[in-house]
């Protein structure tokens, strides 16, 4: 993060080989902690909101005092906006952005976890997952996919594939086939909320929603 001068944690050598999914341990100038929704500090291995504090932290947002108050508390802890966990040895694992979580029937679902399962499908070139409004559950899991050239996504086979990799409540219930490459922002990331909004507002020509009625969800 630019707010932390990008030096919060590190990992290398055998530690990385043993924990390839970890960002590493905090450098000696930094402290990390995980909070629940009520602001309580969580024990190891419990996912929650990641905060950090250290000498490299910025003083404030330029000409935006309110943003500083919203993101840095009186004790100098910065709200990173990331959902993460820290293991018993202090290794950090980033799970998702807090604003990207899908909340389905009270269950928090990581878009990154859904996307990882979808990307394992041999016919998928690009994918992005997001929540869409659903009357009974609040949100449902949706995914937009660009297939590889010459490949097609068969609804029943696709759902069976991801069901083998995800808990049932995390399996997408809406799947959209995107014409061409998915859009990307200035940093190269896929703007998932823009994709969702365009689909909901009917602004995308050529997008086809798979019929999952015959698939066992």
Number of strands: 12
**pLDDT averaged residue by residue:** 91
What is the helix tally?
A: 5
**CATH topology group of the largest domain:** GMP Synthetase, Chain A, domain 3
- What's the level 1 CATH class of the largest domain? Alpha Beta
Say what oligomer this is. single chain
Percent strand: 25-35%
| Count of the domains | 2
Radius of gyration, in Å, reads 19 Å
Low-confidence stretches: none
Give the strand order of the largest sheet, numbering strands 1, 2, ... along the chain.
3-4-5-6
Instruction: Name the structural class.
Output: alpha+beta
Question: Sheet bearing the most strands, described?
Answer: 4 strands, antiparallel
What does this structure look like?
With 217 residues, the protein is of the alpha+beta class. It has two domains: 2-97, Luciferase, Domain 3 (Luciferase, domain 3, Roll); 101-209, GMP Synthetase, Chain A, domain 3 (2-Layer Sandwich), CATH 3.30.300.30. It has five helices and twelve strands. The protein has helices spanning 13-18, 65-71, 111-119, 155-163, 192-200; strands spanning 9-10, 25-26, 30-35, 48-54, 78-86, 92-97, 102-104, 107-109, 124-134, 138-147, 174-177, 208-209. The strands form four sheets. It has a four-stranded antiparallel β-sheet. β10 (138-147), α4 (155-163) and β11 (174-177) form a beta-alpha-beta unit. It is globular. The two termini are 38 Å apart. The model has no long low-confidence stretch (mean pLDDT 91).
């Amino acid at each position: 993060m630019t707010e932390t001068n990008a030096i919060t944690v590190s990992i290398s050598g055998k530690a990385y080989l043993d924990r390839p999914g970890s960002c590493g341990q905090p450098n000696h100038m930094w402290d990390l902690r995980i909070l629940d929704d009520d602001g309580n500090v969580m024990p190891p291995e419990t996912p929650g909101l990641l905060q950090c504090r250290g000498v490299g932290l910025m003083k404030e947002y330029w000409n935006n005092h309110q943003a500083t108050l919203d993101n840095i508390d009186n004790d100098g802890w910065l709200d990173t906006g990331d959902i993460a966990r820290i293991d018993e040895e202090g290794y950090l694992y980033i799970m998702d952005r807090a604003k990207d979580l899908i909340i389905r029937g009270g269950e928090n679902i990581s878009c990154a976890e859904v996307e990882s399962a979808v990307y394992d499908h041999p016919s998928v070139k690009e994918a992005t997952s997001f929540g869409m409004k659903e009357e009974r559950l609040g949100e449902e899991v949706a995914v937009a996919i660009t297939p590889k050239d010459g490949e097609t996504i068969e609804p029943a086979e696709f759902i069976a594939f991801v069901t083998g990799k995800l808990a049932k409540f995390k399996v997408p219930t809406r799947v959209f086939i995107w014409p061409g490459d998915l859009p990307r922002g200035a940093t190269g990331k896929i703007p998932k909320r823009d994709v969702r909004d365009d689909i909901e507002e009917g602004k995308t020509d050529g997008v086809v929603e798979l019929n999952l009625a015959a698939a066992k969800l």
